Amino acid sequence: MVDLTIDLNGLQLKNPVMTASGTFGYGEEFMDFFDISRLGGVLVKGTTLEHREGNAYPRMAETPRGMLNAVGLQNKGVRYFAEHIYPRIKDYQTNMLVNVSGSTIEDYVQTAEVVNELDKIPGIELNISCPNVKEGGMAFGTSCPSAMAVVEAVRKVYKKHLMVKLSPNVTNIAEIGAAVEGAGADSISLINTLLGMAIDAKSRRPLLSTVTGGLSGAAVKPVALRMVWQVAQAVKVPVVGMGGIMTATDAIEFMLAGASAIQVGTANFIDPCVTAKIVDGLENYCAEQGVEKITDLVGALEL
Amino acid sequence: MVDLTIDLNGLQLKNPVMTASGTFGYGEEFMDFFDISRLGGVLVKGTTLEHREGNAYPRMAETPRGMLNAVGLQNKGVRYFAEHIYPRIKDYQTNMLVNVSGSTIEDYVQTAEVVNELDKIPGIELNISCPNVKEGGMAFGTSCPSAMAVVEAVRKVYKKHLMVKLSPNVTNIAEIGAAVEGAGADSISLINTLLGMAIDAKSRRPLLSTVTGGLSGAAVKPVALRMVWQVAQAVKVPVVGMGGIMTATDAIEFMLAGASAIQVGTANFIDPCVTAKIVDGLENYCAEQGVEKITDLVGALEL
Amino acid sequence: MKKYIDDFKVVHNERLNHEYVILTLQHPGRLPAMLPGQFVEVRVDNAPHTFLRRPISIHDVDEKTNTMKLLVQEVGEGTRRMGQLQAGDTCNLVYPLGNSFSLPKGKRVLLVGGGCGIAPLLLLGRYLKEQGIAPRFLLGARSKDGLIAMEAFRSLGEVFTTTEDGSEGTKGFVIHHPVMRTDTPEIDQIYTCGPEPMMKVLAKYAAKHGIACQVSLENQMACGFGACLCCVADTRDGHKCTCTDGPVFDSTYLKW
Amino acid sequence: MKKYIDDFKVVHNERLNHEYVILTLQHPGRLPAMLPGQFVEVRVDNAPHTFLRRPISIHDVDEKTNTMKLLVQEVGEGTRRMGQLQAGDTCNLVYPLGNSFSLPKGKRVLLVGGGCGIAPLLLLGRYLKEQGIAPRFLLGARSKDGLIAMEAFRSLGEVFTTTEDGSEGTKGFVIHHPVMRTDTPEIDQIYTCGPEPMMKVLAKYAAKHGIACQVSLENQMACGFGACLCCVADTRDGHKCTCTDGPVFDSTYLKW
Ligand SMILES: Cc1cc2nc3c(=O)[nH]c(=O)nc-3n(C[C@H](O)[C@H](O)[C@H](O)COP(=O)(O)OP(=O)(O)OC[C@H]3O[C@@H](n4cnc5c(N)ncnc54)[C@H](O)[C@@H]3O)c2cc1C
Ligand SMILES: Cc1cc2nc3c(=O)[nH]c(=O)nc-3n(C[C@H](O)[C@H](O)[C@H](O)COP(=O)(O)OP(=O)(O)OC[C@H]3O[C@@H](n4cnc5c(N)ncnc54)[C@H](O)[C@@H]3O)c2cc1C
Ligand SMILES: Cc1cc2nc3c(=O)[nH]c(=O)nc-3n(C[C@H](O)[C@H](O)[C@H](O)COP(=O)(O)O)c2cc1C
Ligand SMILES: Cc1cc2nc3c(=O)[nH]c(=O)nc-3n(C[C@H](O)[C@H](O)[C@H](O)COP(=O)(O)O)c2cc1C
Ligand code: FES
Ligand code: FES
């Protein structure tokens, strides 16, 4: 038996496989396909203080082995979440983490305060990297001072696990990672989507209502892997890697690069059972390679 | 007859299709496949002041619809180029532009000075964005002051067309574009490769000798298109777009986003005739859409 | 409704013309219940340019043979690959997805389709007939060649046709067909699927004549089952997912 | 040598075992001259995970039928797709690429191959024979199953074999074969292609015995024709491209 458990700076995961925010709904959408209690964790949809309608249609464009989205944090607001959704999902036998977004620091703080009161939510993922909203979002994640400011403010009010999710649209990701660690992050997740664009040559129009959107899927894996490697070397807190993970082999690559856990996003759309398969695949890889504890893989890249 | 000619701030192109540096050798490698005088221009291999052996093997890894390279500017130095290669290629009936790289500003300046003396070379492309060398390269392209410094220094000694090639590995590409324009660039080309990484899960080793390398190919197109769009809006000099162009349709998308000309890189490896097909494809598109001058497409994206 | 993911076996690929095929897919075991208007998400294998699944309506269902039919119009790489599937091949589906057409307001129904939008109307027609409601179809195309799978529709009810070039049926768009061009059309309920401009015209027509109208929308979908929120339509209640709240909407519910 | 890009027609796919096939590809017109040791770059269609072409050695050439043969070992998606090509399919090649084996230093030649590295040795053997030099082959594999295409080699000359498990020929690696285990081996020239460790052992052996040795290298190639500089080998003159300066190198030229 391979030991797949991970201690993510106090947050206990039964295995390193989590689902990425905005790609797994509230988990409910996947219940017909597999038992989500098999997962290490679920990052629920991006949640904001107030209800948000998100961006206008069209919000999605396919790209070479990837996709652009411009959802724009559509959600009913954190109070609706606490009242109506939380009761439905709180007893799932996995870590249900809330992905928190905002336009101002005050937004983030107030949202985190509401989530802090929800007993069965063991942590939040602070999204300082959403490229699809006009205010806030990515802007916070692209400079050290603003990233630190929002993390410090939330840290003051949020008592449980504070994961901070970085934007890849920066010159120096290691610097930002170190900054948010200094500001009190318990773990760091990356990457959010790369800012991209798609055009229909025939109609000469952008394919997204917002012109630019967030790129995800297999295409971004090399960039994500590099950034995870850079951040893992720059910080002491655990790193949660994502970006283009489609298979167990991809997940292992991220762990070798230094990720203690991983998240799977876009792949869920193509195979709703993919995360269960990745859990199995991690176990098989460890068994084949004689790895007894999966933690032995973390950062085990041989240079 | 569609008018495909482009006036790139004084540099006359018979059509907007050029080949990207480092992917087309000195043009000679493609002579067996098609008549390279059909091209608007050829960007020859990255050229430095001194001979460079480049990085150790392995230098290439395939990724989802892309590739990583870590060539590291292998070349025989600009003087060898001037003496031995220039005489062979100087009479090609297309714009032969030299891609100039360096580790210090002085390197860039001296290299540019040598090229300045070569009558049949109508311009250089200043590569301030190579991710595969330890010193200089990308470092110059990732901050405004250093980008400006190198461009200003070269501008003083280089009298012909000065194209500056930007790195995509930055937080704010528009800012860098505006800075190099201010420093005297005649045109701006982008994107160079995105910094990425690949790992072999079985051997637990990086697939490149340099661990990280430059990502190119179809996968990067959405990011490249977005950056071209952003820079085209931020500057007045013409923009030359590249990154993942595989077909004429891709090329048109870049022109709609604001590129006056385009470069094709990785696609040359898969189809050595691809650039000739793109020239044909541009003409067909224009004919079908009733576009008389291809310049009408530049920045013609409808928002 | 419970959703599934399964490998189906292609048992038949009927090519209708240069751009349309009907695939018959067999479930490995017992096909679960599926409703008219629902769709499947097809995984397209061996297609370098097709990253996501492709949504395709359920065209017909045969519980006896545990098969379903998909009517596919080849418009890009994904659908072209589907058109190349051969008997014996495997086709992985996520299904059944979306809501469904609901029972009509009145017995006089008209099912209006254009292009590949006729696909869900066959199963709907079969379903209505089983409920004792005689379906009438109005199918439009650019020209005669575009009027496909006619026998299947005729076996269920009356079929009217229009073609833009007049090569068959009434010349013009569906809205120009005599069945609609009276002051008091004998229609209680319109069901429609096809190009958006067509459906908008029908929605307006229905509103004017006090006819109920259900439209089946297309949209850019990444998942097809409510996980990505990419596929929204603008409704009176704000953004709603075409893949879970739709694809079928009451036309008056949409902000058209 | 002039390089070409052409669609070839697959005229035959001979499956040797679960992992090896021999493809026979026919040129649309007249096949240009090709030398032993050269390779082609195969475009792999319908393969989502295969972005670049795949380099494959020219296994054999038949000028009368304008065909060439490729011996393909299925190791990943690209080669597996090649293994699925069927008579009538099209296969796009860039060819002929690379330098070639050169004439031997002396008449007593030994062609040593392992795995898919045996591929270029057949054409080389044929070429040597035409030059009046009798090729002797030493082919190694893990076990009997890995010794493939033996008849073709036997038709050209003497064939020695080794298997790691001893299921055929001498037990051990190629270096353990009696033909090499004498103090004065009757060999003037070794040609070798196969796993790098094998070739390194042979290079050392050749150096020790004063035998000339040409090795054919593999490398990560993006283009195959000198445009990308990805495929360098470390030589006494610094980095040289395996695809243009190689794939065949004199073993003493390499920094091994
Ligand atoms: C709920 C639903 C049911 C559908 N039912 C059917 C059906 O029964 N039969 C059928 O043939 N088609 C149906 N479609 C449309 C089908 O999904 C698209 O034609 C298909 O996704 C195109 O994929 P492709 O790879 O062939 O083309 P692509 O190469 O992806 O695109 C080719 C062209 O089609 C457009 N396109 C791509 N995807 C969509 C989409 N989801 N909606 C609208 N336009 C698109 C592109 O913009 C492009 O112009 C349905 C779509 C939806 C949302
Ligand atoms: C000059 C040359 C001649 C060759 N001749 C033959 C031949 O005649 N017959 C034959 O079967 N194979 C030959 N090869 C090897 C063949 O190119 C690779 O097996 C093939 O590229 C693998 O592609 P894939 O998509 O099947 O596997 P992938 O999925 O790309 O890789 C599968 C495994 O093979 C390894 N691999 C991939 N590409 C290469 C490469 N270029 N070199 C070494 N390892 C690689 C990968 O690291 C991985 O472990 C030759 C290679 C070269 C450079
Ligand atoms: C449709 C969609 C919606 C997303 N919504 C969110 C979100 O609300 N909050 C967030 O932090 N990330 C969001 N993301 C980013 C993903 O969580 C993830 O960081 C990214 O997609 C990269 O991983 P992948 O390549 O595995 O998809 C979204 C991604 C997609 C594709
Ligand atoms: C093998 C290889 C070598 C390259 N060498 C150089 C170089 O010497 N100088 C340079 O400015 N860019 C170099 N590039 C970057 C390309 O010119 C181009 O900017 C990049 O590949 C994106 O375009 P593409 O996706 O069409 O390949 C190289 C790219 C590749 C793949
Ligand atoms: S397509 Fe994903 S929610 Fe509708
Ligand atoms: S593979 Fe491109 S130079 Fe050799």
Which class of secondary structure composition applies to the elements of chain A?
A: alpha/beta
Count structural domains of chain C. 2
**What sequence of helices (H) and strands (E) makes up the elements of chain A?**
EEEEEEHEHEHHEHEEEEEHEHEHH
Number of strands of chain C: 16
* Count of alpha and pi helical runs of chain A: 9
State mean pLDDT of chain A (0 to 100 scale).
95
Cα-atom radius of gyration of chain C: 17 Å
Can you identify the CATH class of chain A? Answer: Alpha Beta
Average pLDDT figure of chain C? 95
Largest sheet of chain C, in brief, is:
7 strands, antiparallel
**What's the level 1 CATH class of the largest domain in chain C?**
Alpha Beta
CATH superfamily (homologous) name of chain A? Aldolase class I
The largest sheet of chain A, given as strand count, sense and whether it forms a barrel, is: 8 strands, parallel, barrel
